[in-house]
Amino acid sequence: MATLIRPPPNDPSLSVMENTLELTRLTDIDPDMFTNTRPLWHPPGARGVYGGSVIAQCLSAAQKTVPADFAVHSMHCYFVLAGNAEIPIIYYVEHVREGKSFATRTVQARQRGKPIFTTTLSFMREGSAGFKRVEHGLPLPDVPQPYDDPSEVLWSSRGPFESQHLDTYNGDAVDAHLVRTRNWMRARGKISNAGGHRAHLNALAYMTDSFFIGTIARAHRVWRNPPAAKDGERDTEVARRIKAQNGGQEHNEDKRPEIGMMVSLDHTIYFHRPKDFKADEWLFSEMDTPWSGDGRGVVTQRIWTRDGKLVATCFQEGLVRLKQSSESKL
To answer: Rounded to the nearest 5°, which phi and psi values hold at 23?
Structure first.
């Protein structure tokens, strides 16, 4: 079964995102042990559950073990094994440090006793930096504002968040590092007051993994096959997004190199303004790739509020392998 305990009905007072990421605390076993309350999404064509859900639930579990005046400022993650959507995930939180200004937690996500994901998080006590500070932030690029009319949305997920895809910046550049992929995103519905800023942080963490490592494929204009049909039906929204990444083509008419395997290896989030944004309001994401080689690649993501505050910077390294031409066995 996909959960350790039978899932309760969705709480109507909570947003879709909050219901999706809800955790059950296994207090009778260990107060620092948690499990997913509801089944997790397995994206079409993916090797396992959506990585953003595991990232977000690890953050949620860690936040439940630190004082209320501590906010997360960094999270360093490693994807170890593909998560199975049919098996419950158990989250183990370890208290590494309890300082006056900083607290450190590690969280390990396990299935059938094996770690599938591990992360280390650092929390900082609010106000501990003092009144005099060194401050600056990269400004929001000059980009079109998001549409409020759903009929104008270029691409939108059916899940707990929605996104509006913008045209690729420098999409025709010869140098891949000059290409920028851009989109607006926000959690669906209204995140509850009861969830507070921590629910907004969980939602942001969930959204950061969306089409992240795929930036490399787009920057190099290599071909990505849409996810295979399941039960006779193809996920049309995902297929449409990949079609856009393939220059609007449904078939590889240009005989471009094709992606053979692309999976995330690690994921880092720096939360610059943990309490100065709302994940259910539009956030702008811009991604670029400074390097790829040896079957791997690195992508950088910057996230701003609509009014121009840089709230997070993310990094991801992934495995990016092309299909190899068959070699003669003679």
So the answer is: -115, 150
Percent of the chain with pLDDT over 70: 87
Under DSSP, is residue 115 helix (H, G, I), strand (E, B) or coil?
Answer: strand
DSSP H helical ranges for the chain: 16-20, 51-63, 196-207, 214-220, 236-245
What pLDDT, in 10s, does the model give residues 77-99?
Answer: 999 999 999 999 999 999 999 99
pLDDT at residue 225 greater than cutoff 80: no
Q: Which residues make Cβ contacts (< 8 Å) with residue 289, sequence separation at least 6?
A: 176, 177, 179, 215, 216, 219, 297, 298, 299, 300
3-state secondary structure of 106: strand
158-198 confidence digits (pLDDT tens):
689 999 999 999 999 999 999 999 999 999 999 999 999 99
Look at residues 9, 14, 90 and name the one whose alpha carbon lies nearest to residue 57: 90
Task: Express each pLDDT in 24-57 by its tens digit.
Answer: 999 999 999 999 999 999 988 889 999 999 999 9
Indicate the average pLDDT of the chain.
91
Rounded CA gap, 229 and 224, in Å? 15
CA 63 from centre of chain: 17
311: left (phi over 0), alpha (psi -120 to 50) or beta: alpha
Quick check: 203 and 280 in contact, CB under 8 A? yes
pLDDT-based confidence at 243, cuts 50/70/90?
Answer: low
Q: What is the mean pLDDT of residues 221-228?
A: 77
**3 state DSSP class of 134:** coil
E-strand ranges in the chain read 23-25, 33-36, 70-79, 90-98, 102-111, 114-125, 161-165, 181-187, 259-271, 283-293, 296-305, 310-322
- Which amino acid is located at 192 in the chain? S
The vertex-90 CA angle with 85 and 95, nearest 5°, equals 145
